[in-house]
Prior knowledge:
This protein is mainly β. The chain has 2 domains: 28-207, no CATH class; 222-424, no CATH class. Helix content is 9%, strand content 47%. The protein has an 8-stranded antiparallel β-barrel. A 4-stranded antiparallel beta sheet has the order 1-2-3-4, with no helix packed on it.
Amino acid sequence: MRRYILFLLLLALTLPGHLLNAQNDSTPRYDQRWEIAPGLFRVQQNGHFGVANANDSLLIPCRFDQIMVHGQLPYLKAIKGQKMGLYNSEGRQLLAPEYDQIWAFDQERARVLKNGKMGMVNTRGQLVVPPIYEHLSNFENGRARAWLDGQQVFLDPNGRLAGTPLVASAQAADSLVQNQADFSPASDSLETDAWHGPAMEIGPARVEHKKKKDTFEGHLSGFYLGINGYLDADNKDRLPQDYAFMETIPGKSIEVGIYPWQQSIRLIGPHVGLVTAAGIKFNNYRFDFDRITEVPEESRIWFPDILEDARISKSKLTTLQLTVPLAFEIQLPDSKGKNNFYLSAGIEGGLRLRSHTKLVLREDGSKDKKKRRDSFGMPTFRYGYFAKAGYDDFGIYASYSPQSLFKEDRGPELFPYTIGLTFNFD
């Protein structure tokens, strides 16, 4: 009998403990729990978020402000403070939470933003494009468009420069991409396998130690369109009495210049330098007379022979020159460091290739066009001064020659000038 009493006492003492343990085991481990994918749960504990599997085993520790599916599984974006990191659905850290933005993967590449600069990682978390670019697009036809120091470059899927001039900063980044070494970052993952994530720090800090060779690029090559005129020796817009027929129609006295080639020489940093170019220039001086009788006898030899009663609807003098300018240019960078605004001034030399006068007239009841080719007493070589100002690919210019349009005693003493617009070539 005593044995039964002793057994009952021992059972009474041990049973409450087992019941208490059972009650504790049924208590939830997490404050909240949401299913974000089959067998995968976002869990909250003490105000922080992590990820657990169906067995409530933690895959990602509860130390983040938020966790969500990144685009599509198996990628999970973890946010801590104002920074983002990246995990896979197995709880393996791909990117430490040190990025300002991480975009969804596209063609196995995801763009990232760090310290205001963009780069790109692959699906293993490897940084294939260092975050040094002002802007970076997704890949299209095997190339991604990027902007570095205001210049456009193209990158291949491995972060190498593809088919573009090697900008100095891009060369440094290109060298870093080629020489990446494996790196094992400190991980927030609970797993302790030997996986080595190559999320290495490749950014401006790694590039700054390389000497940066900024280039200077001037603004002379382009298309020029201006209005021609001339001044007398007193810098007044007037003509000698015997040459009143040379009064021009301003809107139709046009200069057209094309400069397809230029060469720039840096003097002081990337903002000050010399630039030269080569091109051709047409100068048209459209006259305003209706009959050849308005032209003095000694000057009629400039024009084709026509009847005195022929009515003239168009008359002009045209010259074609090979021109080589040389300018000193100052560029003023904007807040992004781009040399968009510029000022330049210099001297230009010209070789006259040909010149002619042209008359469009009605003679004997029919319309006709006549030309006469000659030097008209104009010098073969000419020089002048010019100035330009502009922003990006658009500008204004003015030119003036202290050399008379005609040789001495071969025509009036007139000094040509032009004011116009420029459209620069890249």
